[in-house]
Amino acid sequence: MNFSNRDLLMTLYCGITILGVVLLVFAWYVWKQSEIAAEPLSYWIASVVLFIVGIALIMFGIETYIERDDPDVWL
Questions:
Q1: Residue 56 vs residue 71, higher pLDDT
Q2: Cα(24)–Cα(73) distance, rounded to whole angstroms?
Q3: Cβ contact 63:12 at 8 Å
Q4: Which residues have CB under 8 Å from 20's CB, separation 6+?
Q5: What is d(CA 75, CA 67) in angstroms, rounded to the nearest whole number?
Q6: Is the predicted pLDDT of residue 73 greater than 80, yes or no?
Q7: Measured between alpha carbons, how far is residue 31 from residues 27, 48, 49 in Å?
């Protein structure tokens, strides 16, 4: 099977967006675990970091979808 460069990039950008959603789910799970933890501060910090990275990845995926006609993004 021969894939074009555009197909591979589209798969990569979709994978990055899905990874962002997975990180948001992990952030929610870690935040909920902080309710029963003895030291919740470490859980809060991890949850905030996961949330920020997840949002950044989702925004990157949406941006590449919006700019799908730009030749600089889709070589």
A1: 56
A2: 25
A3: no
A4: 53, 54, 55, 56, 57, 58, 60, 61
A5: 12
A6: no
A7: 6, 8, 11
